[in-house]
């Protein structure tokens, strides 16, 4: 049994807390919102973000970050990506040398273009950092439906330890040394999912969605490999797998926000209606900036930015994607 501090009590944090508790671990949940902790402690259920998932009496809830951090075998960072650095900074003096921190959020910092694991490492250099990511909607994990995911870390023993803690008969964990590739796939697939939702909202069909998923994965892969990620990562669970589920499922807040934008709502209106952090909105600008920095063509990411931040009509953006200069699908050589 391990002692685990869950830093963040949104839908994903609570789903993982439920899983870890079921795995027999001692779980303490912290939230920056005192009212959220009061509600969870009293109701033993997050009725707003994860209704129907009952939490056991063994699980502890605290408003004191020190209680959730000190003496824990593992810390799980489950705060929205826009609060990752701020929360890590608050934790810095509480984290012991070599204490394992597992990032489960998805995003890229807009002003620095840094992935979440790098942000945590900068703020808490003494920590042993891992990432847990994949096609894993909280709503299904909290119901015990079969799910697969990847634990990535620079140290093999760290990834394998995370694997052993989270694995269960309904939650299969693989390991990977490609932390950068896992983080990039996790963040940028949310931007493509916004595009897929926009296409749904405007009434386009399965052909359109298949094109967005496939070409979106191509954009992510080319950028990711150029930045140092492994091609296998983008063809795996944290690349193709996560992209498919986020573009296809109504559990996806990014797809839902995209649908609303496709139906004519502005970005802010869509985010307000979804009532959850839409990570793709925050990663869109960073994705475009990375494309420019590494000289990679990412037309889908570019058009999503124009729709989100320049109020470009969705139909006009799709048309622009369709009438671009014609080209081969791959850089394969013809046999003469």
Brief digest:
The chain has 336 residues and is an alpha/beta fold. It contains 16 helices and eight strands.
Summarize the helices and strands and which ones pair or pack.
Layout: E1 3-7, H1 11-22, E2 26-30, H2 34-43, E3 60-62, H3 65-69, E4 74-77, H4 84-91, E5 100-103, H5 116-123, E6 128-133, H6 138-141, E7 147-153, H7 156-166, E8 171-176, H8 179-202, H9 206-227, H10 231-234, H11 237-248, H12 253-262, H13 267-274, H14 279-293, H15 299-310, H16 314-322
Helix pairs in contact: 4-5, 8-9, 8-11, 8-12, 8-14, 9-11, 12-13, 14-15, 15-16
Query: In CATH terms, what is the fold-level topology of the largest domain?
Result: Rossmann fold
Amino- and carboxy-terminal Cα gap: 63 Å
The biggest sheet, with number of strands, parallel, antiparallel or mixed sense and barrel status, is: 8 strands, mixed
Under the CATH scheme, the architecture of the largest domain is 3-Layer(aba) Sandwich
Q: In CATH, what is the class of the largest domain?
A: Alpha Beta
Tell me the number of structural domains: 2
Poorly predicted spans = none
Shape: globular
How many extended strands? 8
Work out the helix count: 16
Oligomer: single chain
Radius of gyration (CA) equals: 20 Å
CATH superfamily of the largest domain: NAD(P)-binding Rossmann-like Domain
* Spatial strand arrangement across the major sheet: 3-2-1-4-5-6-7-8
Mean pLDDT: 96
| Helical proportion, percent range | 40-55%
Provide the β-strand percentage band.
Answer: 5-15%
Q: Could you say which structural class the secondary elements and strand pairing correspond to?
A: alpha/beta
Order of helices and strands: EHEHEHEHEHEHEHEHHHHHHHHH
